[in-house]
Amino acid sequence: MLRLDSVCKTFNPGTANEVRALVNVTIELAPGSFTVVIGTNGSGKSTLQGAISGAFDLDRGSITVDDTNITRWPEHRRAHLIGRVFQDPFAGTAPGLTVAENLALASKRGKWRTLAPLLRGARRGEWKDLLAQIGLGLENRLDDPIGLLSGGQRQSITLLMATLTSPKVLLLDEHTAALDPRSAELVISLTTRLVAHSSATTVMVTHSMQQAATLGDRLIAMHRGQVYLDVSGVQKQHLTESELLALFSQMRRDDRFDDDACALVAGQYR
Amino acid sequence: MSLLIATLAIGLVFGVLALGIYLSFRVYQLPDITADGSFPLGAAITARLLRDGVDPVTATIAGMAGGALAGAITGAIHVHFKVNALLSGILVMTALYSVNLRIMGASNVPIKANTIFTPFEQGAIAWFGQETSILGRSVPSSDLGLLLATTIVVGVAGILLVLFLKTELGAAMRATGDNARMLRALGTSTDRMTILGLALSNALVALSGSLFAQMQSFADAQMGIGVIVLGLASVILGQSLIGPVRSIALAIIGAVMGAVLFRLLVAIAIRMGLDANDLKLVTAVVVLAAIVGPTWLKSIARKRGTHAPA
Fold first, then answer.
1. DSSP codes of every residue in B250-274
2. Which residues form the domain of A222?
3. Is residue A104 part of a domain?
4. Model ipTM over 0.90
5. What is the pLDDT of residue A111?
6. Which residues of chain B are at the A interface, by a Cβ-Cβ cutoff of 8 Å?
């Protein structure tokens, strides 16, 4: 279970660039659930992920995984509970290390790095099976530097790495946004399979309305740092792409209305 | 021939330096100028302890430990106080200048006691007699002992470094230099890895300094000037010798070969009339050329609308 309680985060407080990225957000996600998060630019959907992963300190509020309060844990300490895949397909793997070495580092997620040889007792057979699942012939490239692989290939491996140690929480931060359509499709189908087999509470941020409509058992739409819409169960299942698009234009209209109002007010004070 | 063997031995000592610089510059991608302080620190600690009657092995290891501490301090300043890595190195290097003078009690300390090389020199003399002949030229046997000792030290250090970089910890260090964000997401403190890596790098640099002092029979407060550039020259030269390789072992062999070759080139240049005072200027220019040269040539080629030869 993942619980956010009255979480607040403001970037650059007190300056002209002040951004209230998260305003009193309270969300409780059931264990093993798969939640899709959407939102306009600057809605706070990525900040939400950052808050969970520990990329910054919160201004207020708390975050608990199962019954552990992790609010004050640094990023690297949370990692044994949280698996992550980033938007940048190159961010999740170390290019100079081989595929096997990357997997080996991930298989010891959150543990002390010791003086034992990294690849001793490596479960190569198991890894080959996992890599074969992706269907890109990666099972024969265990000993190639991962930097030689394409973005889609590396993102697929990052996804494997994130789920290798069965984390409590899996964070997917627009992890197909920077991929070509074919790779994105491949990564999404791998995501569906891995999430189905995993007991992790999964949070996937996406920009794709199609993904938002078809994936997950719950949908949260963020707007101006707050939860704008939260549907689950049957309601979520019947949600269509066009309904989501309509929701989006509604949120954008709100934005524009506020911008227009600002301009109007600003005009009077000029 | 005697000059050649002595040059090789010194080159191998700088090979140990190259191992340290390889770690900071190639693995962490930061040129750590702490080396200019930790090299003489290793020398100073060893010289002081030898003068105080400590046995050479302990004195050498103590020198290394001093270097490790210096590197750890640079790393800690960098990661905990978010001070730019280069500036952290400059601060520690500057502070070490005074520390080294304190340790030695003078700016120059001769080493009169037995050194870590003495058993090898004596062994070679016992085996071959005072002089021996190689390819028809007479060579002092002690130089052969020196060459053997330095070969062993750089060999052992190099093998240990390669093995280390393939351990969980070593691979985590490589990943820190490669993609720190990924390693944090995998639950390892990159701060800790950076401190540890710089400690290890400077331990090797200090070992090199300690060996150099024992070989030259003195430690000097000024002997660290330009050490980082010398190390970089070795690593870059080694890279061009070996080519772009994926194997860590080959890259490390390349760095050691680079150090030896650089030393040989220097010896030849001085033989041919290069003023020793101009050496650092020449070294700096060579390193600059090696770093910017390839890119610069390519951009010239592009401007002319042709492709640079690969």
1. HHHHHHHHHHHHHHHHHHHHHHTT-
2. 2-94+168-269
3. no
4. no
5. 84
6. 163-164, 166-172, 174-175, 177-179, 181-190, 193, 246
